[in-house]
Amino acid sequence: MPVWFQKQMKKAFLEKNRYQIKLLNQCWYFYRRTLN
Fold first, then answer.
1. What's the pLDDT score for residue 13?
2. What value, to the nearest 5°, has the Cα angle with vertex 27 and ends 26 and 29?
3. From CA 34, how far away is CA 11, in angstroms rounded?
4. CA–CA gap between residue 36 and residue 34 (Å, rounded)
5. How many alpha carbons fall within 13 Å on the CB side of residue 24?
6. Cβ contact 35:27 at 8 Å
7. Angle of helix 3-14 relative to helix 18-35, nearest 10 degrees?
């Protein structure tokens, strides 16, 4: 997992930002899918 992504996730979790967490999860899923 990229460092910038980890930072974003940590920030979202600390702020309990559900929308951002959902968005990041979708981005990560898409990112993983395009790599394979």
1. 87
2. 65
3. 25
4. 6
5. 17
6. no
7. 160
Place of tokens 């790599």: 35
Give 2's pLDDT tier (boundaries 50, 70, 90).
Answer: confident
Q: pTM score > 0.85 for this model?
A: no
Q: Which residue carries 């999860």 as its tokens?
A: 25
* Cα 9 from Cα 34, distance rounded (Å): 20
Which one, of 20, 18, 19, 16, lies nearest residue 8 by Cα?
Answer: 20
Residues in the chain: 36
